[in-house]
Design brief:
The complex is a heterotrimer.
Chain A: H1 19-23, H2 28-56, H3 66-103, H4 111-133, H5 147-151, H6 156-183, H7 196-228, H8 241-275, H9 282-295, H10 311-339, H11 348-371, H12 373-379, H13 383-413, H14 419-446, H15 460-490, E1 529-530, E2 537-538
Antiparallel strand pairs in A: 1-2
Helix pairs in contact in A: 2-3, 2-4, 2-15, 3-4, 3-6, 3-7, 3-8, 3-13, 4-6, 6-7, 7-8, 7-9, 8-10, 8-11, 8-13, 9-10, 10-11, 11-13, 11-14, 13-14, 14-15
Chain B: H1 13-48, H2 50-57, H3 62-87, H4 91-121, H5 139-173, H6 183-206
Helix pairs in contact in B: 1-5, 1-6, 2-5, 3-4, 3-6, 4-5, 5-6
Chain C: H1 13-46, H2 63-91, E1 99-106, E2 109-113, E3 119-121, E4 123-127, E5 132-138, E6 143-147, E7 152-156, E8 162-166, E9 172-178, E10 191-196, H3 198-207, H4 214-224, H5 227-230, E11 249-251, E12 257-259, H6 262-270, H7 293-305
Parallel strand pairs in C: 1-5, 4-10
Antiparallel strand pairs in C: 1-2, 2-3, 5-8, 6-7, 6-9, 9-10, 11-12
Helix pairs in contact in C: 1-2, 4-7
Classes of the chains: A mainly alpha, B mainly alpha, C alpha+beta.
């Protein structure tokens, strides 16, 4: 089969250009762009809160914001970043765009449901903006009872309802992905020929389906208790505040896997491509994401080691938390081994991917510290935990998101981004990130608690360092906005397969036509058939060197 | 009747039909977790405050609850009948079965509404004039809380189901479905069965408490 | 650990253990990072595009490697788990206490009561080298009692009591913090822990205007709230006598047998219906909302003083 050049014919972008054709589209690729606009907007809302937080923490007295405003700021940062950016980021943008393309389908199983999920997301977004503008909420993204139900005078119900509605959007997207991956694979696309990005999305979607409803119920009960004074978690009625924590964390621990599994999927696409060799241990990688997804449901109690759970519970949850770290470790080893005897280039996506592996590994290893019971007693609820999860969610997920964005940018937009600017942004991100968050490990072990607007003066030097790093990070995150935007207007036209990659998405034009493929592909090959010896490759539908 | 073509992303109508069913199963899985979380919380408190929950349960209206169970179980029979009938291309009788299903569901809601009214008069509605009876202590209000949240959410799900059944009944009557294609009815049948099963769990949790032996 | 830069002071027996495990893990993490990053750097340089390295013979049977590093990882993790679990079981099973303190967290302060009736706010005075047991209660929301220098922390949960213990090993002043978000003044719930020599500690105790001991104050409340009206030998109401109850096992009407610790006593006062003792009528009223948390602790102290006075299991 000959190479498919970028056709001057109609693409999904040019097929129709009315506003209605975008707002009422059923095309998963357009919906992906709609989601991209929404999550990017919220990324900057959450980032704005982060900027204010770091500015406030430059001096120990915390007079910039003061306690009430600070408390609302970190709550907003958490809620917006978790539910309105991180969880939808890769799945609803890259996932929506790529899942049908990668499996050789013409769209997702339920296109109208897909569009509905974007509208539901925006409704939840409006509710979120409402609670923020109306004065905010100060319970933290964790909504702990009885503070949230009986004591807070923030907009608890509005915040809880916003997240509740957001959960529907998540469930709709996840349902679509699970069903699509089961039923709409092209002929020859067996489970173990699926790209690892699809495995990552699949595992993520299973977790989304099973965990999110529990959050919905938990927040519903919180809203009822706060609004009507009926006390499920109210000790005066015999209610148990710890029941809230169990229910909340039963969702929220799997939620963190929702946030990292898609990123792992992205990394597994980028590294083989830019190392020009097959991923090391494909099956192990696929099994590992499923193992993380499943075992991740059994570790929630490690958020409650100091909350008053029994010694026995502590032991069990600690044990399971160590077990869940094993598949992640396997993935890190396999990514590293994928570099061995490769033919490695350093384009921006690869820089982001390597950055992902490095920062995820640091974050993940500190997770072992937290799984170790006596250490957790000391550092839980301190900046150590904040550093740990930011290494994984920001150093990990956001780096992978940016890497994937750059990698698939030519496919999505038909344009090439400016490579040198992108590499600079990637490097700046890595440096800025470490300066921001590494000092927080030290702050945590020294005993600086979380959610403190003011702190003892001996912690100032680390806080200033962290805030300085945050300013570098801010620049690094704004840069892509600028040059990617520029590329839409002035970037070079992209060919169908500028990276010479093996996936089915590269076997159609850049950007793809409305229904993805002129003819349904027939899959004959495993993914990542790159040969590092001579740089040749075979695509999944059997085309040698594209 | 015009032949139904599958949507663009499907190769065959059969693929589309099977996919719709898988979609409904996936959705029902989320509902199991949703109601499951609530029922789990309920049982945690029931085990902690068994005596109090038994006292509270004396005011649960077993007769009304049993009538409702009978209504809902019968509605599942009519729903299954509707599916069987449309598979035999008997659209009009299938439509009738669907209307019956909706009717039974509406009757359920009616009985429930009456039951809620009686609960109000008995001062067992939390927040609205709730009163503890002799020997009752605060955990009793927890029982009633769970009762209203659980049955209220169930009633909401049932209402959505009734509306869907009515719409599909009208479409069936007007000839939209046939033996060749009736996927929405089957998918709705799955949902309806699920709503029924949830009720059975709620019934078992709420009404018989303290009345055995 | 004072020789390690940026290291917090360690001032308790717990701190020494925690630090030992932490440092071991950090070293291990460092080695792993060295290994992984080392390999990554080596590979990206050696196998960069354009280099003349040998790229033939890619490993086909990857299973051997994967089983290898999976097993090694699992083993290493299990060892870390085991060390941590062992230390945890040792550290968090309270030994016999030399001193018991009663702490109530409320928005936004720590109220501390001593058995002798002394009271402090946002401050603790402790004798060096003595095992201290702390009973934690909350007046309102969840707080968390955290002394970084001791490496101990425990949440303070409304509606129940938590207990933990520590043994100070250094003289000096150490920070006490709240580490569970509890509202506007969360960051202001900071106090000081003063560790004194036993002699200085005794001096300090007597310098406080204590008045009655905590147990005596509790006995006064016991009468004031009418408890003695039923729980006494002269009462006509059939209610259990409380002498010897604390620290013993109690048979409940629903068939359970429970250990009468502080939580049990508190539940009896606030939710008596859930703790009905076998053989007694369900007539005790609930005192929910009537007695503040520090008052409840005084009552507990009184019941402890007439009880079997064993440690909680």
């Amino acid at each position: 089969m000959t190479a498919i050049a970028s056709e001057p014919g109609s693409t999904y972008l040019t097929a129709e250009s009315t506003i209605a054709s975008w707002l009422l589209t059923k095309d998963h690729k357009r919906i992906a762009l709609l989601f991209f606009a929404s999550v990017t907007a919220f990324f900057f809302v959450g980032g704005f809160a982060a900027a204010l937080i770091r500015l406030n923490l430059i001096e120990p007295a915390g007079t910039l914001l003061g306690p009430d405003l600070y408390n609302r700021m970190f709550t907003m940062h958490g809620i917006v970043m978790v539910w309105f950016f991180l969880i939808p980021s890769i799945p609803a943008t890259l996932g929506n765009f790529l899942v049908p393309l990668m499996i050789g389908a013409r769209d997702l199983a339920f296109p109208r449901l897909n569009l509905a999920s974007w509208y539901v997301f925006n409704i939840s977004g409006i509710l979120a903006l409402y609670f923020i503008i109306a004065g905010g909420n100060d319970t933290g993204w964790t909504f702990y009872a009885p503070y949230s139900t009986l004591f807070s005078n923030g907009h608890v119900i509005a915040a809880a309802v916003a997240v509740f509605v957001n959960g529907f959007s998540t469930i709709m997207t996840a349902l679509n992905f699970v069903v699509t991956i089961h039923r709409l694979r092209a002929p020859g696309m067996t489970w173990f020929r699926l790209p690892l990005f699809i495995w990552g999305i699949y595992a993520t979607s299973v977790v989304m389906l099973l965990a999110t409803p529990v959050l919905a119920m938990t927040l519903l009960l919180i809203a009822l208790e706060h609004g009507f004074g009926i006390g499920i978690f109210d000790p005066a009625l015999g209610g148990d505040p710890l029941l809230f924590q169990h229910m909340f964390w039963f969702y929220s621990h799997p939620a963190v896997y929702i946030m990292i599994l898609p990123a792992m999927g992205v990394a597994s696409e980028l590294i083989p491509c830019f190392a020009r060799r097959p991923v090391f241990g494909y099956r192990g990688m696929a099994y590992a994401v499923m193992a993380i997804a499943i075992i991740g449901f059994f570790v929630w109690g490690h958020h409650m080691f100091t909350a008053g759970i029994s010694l026995f519970s502590g032991i069990v949850f600690s044990f399971m938390s160590f077990v869940v770290a094993v598949p992640s470790a396997i993935k890190v080893f396999n990514w590293t081994a994928t570099l061995h005897r490769g033919r490695i280039s350093f384009d921006a996506p690869m820089l982001y991917a390597l950055s992902f592996v490095g920062l995820f590994t640091i974050g993940g290893l500190t997770g072992l510290n937290l799984a170790t019971l006596p250490i957790d007693i000391h550092v839980t609820d301190t900046y150590f935990v904040i550093a740990h999860f930011h290494y994984i969610m920001v150093g990990g997920t956001v780096s992978a998101f940016f890497g994937g964005l750059h990698y698939w940018w030519p496919k999505i937009t038909g344009r090439l981004y400016p490579e040198m600017w992108a590499r600079a942004a990637a490097i700046l991100t890595f440096l800025g990130f470490n300066v921001t968050f590494f000092p927080q490990f030290i702050l945590g072990y020294l005993g600086m608690p979380r959610r403190y607007y003011a702190y003892p003066p001996e912690f100032q030097v680390w806080n200033v360092l962290s805030s300085a790093g945050a300013s570098i990070l801010a620049i690094a995150y704004v840069m892509p906005l600028v040059y990617l935007g520029w590329s839409l207007l002035r970037g070079k036209q992209a060919s169908a397969n500028p990276w010479h990659a093996t996936g089915l998405e590269w076997r159609t034009s850049s950007p793809p036509p409305e229904h993805n493929f002129p003819r349904t592909p027939v899959v004959t090959d495993a993914p990542y058939r790159y040969n590092p010896e001579d740089g040749s490759y075979v695509t999944q539908d059997g085309a040698a060197n594209g | 009747m015009a032949s139904i073509r599958p949507e663009a992303q499907y190769a065959t109508l059969e693929q589309q039909t099977e996919t719709a069913q898988l979609g409904m199963w996936a959705f029902l899985a989320t509902e199991v977790l949703f109601f499951g979380a609530l029922i789990f919380g309920y049982y945690i408190y029931r085990i902690a405050y068994t005596d109090q929950f038994i006292l509270a349960g004396h005011d649960a209206k077993l007769v009304l609850g049993s009538i409702n169970t009978a209504l809902l179980l019968t509605s599942s029979v009519t729903m299954v009948a509707a599916i069987e009938l449309i598979k035999r291309n008997e659209a009009r009788r299938a439509a009738t079965a669907l209307y019956l299903t909706a009717l039974l569901g509406i009757a359920f809601l009616g009985v429930k509404g009456y039951e809620y009214l009686q609960d109000y008069y008995d001062h067992t509605v939390p927040v609205l004039d709730f009163v503890l009876k002799p020997h009752q202590q605060p955990p009793v209000e927890l029982f009633w809380l769970f009762y209203f949240v659980a049955t209220g959410l169930h009633a909401l799900h049932l209402t959505i189901g009734i509306v869907a059944v009515l719409i599909l009944a009208a479409h069936t009557r007007s000839g939209r479905y046939s033996a060749a294609y009736h996927s929405p009815i089957e998918v709705l049948g799955l949902y309806w069965s699920f709503v029924d099963v949830v009720w059975l769990f709620l019934f078992a949790a709420i009404y018989p408490i303290g009345r055995a032996g | 650990m004072a020789w390690l830069p940026f290291w917090p002071r360690d001032a308790s027996t717990t701190a020494a253990t925690v630090d030992a495990i932490a440092v071991s893990e950090f070293i291990l993490i460092g080695l792993v990072l060295l290994l992984v990053f080392g390999m990554m750097f080596t590979f990206v340089i050696k196998y960069r595009q354009g280099s003349k390295a040998d790229r033939s013979h890619l490993v086909r049977k990857t299973w051997w490697f994967e089983i290898g590093w999976t097993s090694a990882t699992l083993l290493a993790f299990l060892v870390l788990f085991a060390f941590g679990a062992r230390a945890y079981l040792f550290l968090y099973q309270p030994p016999k206490a030399d001193l018991e303190l009663y702490v109530v967290g409320k928005q936004w302060m720590w109220k501390v009561q001593y058995p002798g009736g002394q009271r402090e706010i946002d401050s603790l005075h402790l004798p060096l080298g003595k095992t201290v047991r702390v009973l934690l209660g909350s007046e309102d929301v969840i707080h968390s009692f955290y002394i970084p220098a001791f490496r101990v922390k425990h949440d303070v949960v409304p509606g129940t009591y938590e207990t933990f213990w520590f043994k100070p090993t250094e003289l000096g002043s150490f920070r006490l913090e709240c580490s569970e978000f509890c509202g506007t003044g969360h960051a202001n719930m900071i106090g000081t822990v003063h560790v004194l020599t036993p002699a200085d500690y005794t001096r300090w105790l007597s310098s406080q205007n204590a008045g009655q001991t905590l147990a005596q104050q509790g006995e006064a409340l016991f009468r004031r709230y009418g408890c003695s009206g039923c729980h006494s030998a002269r009462s006509t109401i059939h209610a259990p006598l409380l002498e010897g109850v604390y620290g013993s096992y109690v048979h409940l009407a629903d068939g359970r047998t429970v250990f009468a610790d502080e939580r049990y006593i508190r539940d009896c006062i606030l939710l008596p219906a859930s703790q009905r003792v076998a053989g007694y009528p369900p007539v005790m009223p609930s005192f929910t909302g009537q007695i503040p948390e520090d008052g409840l602790m005084k009552l507990i102290a009184y019941v402890q003083s007439i009880g079997a006075a064993k440690e909680t299991p």
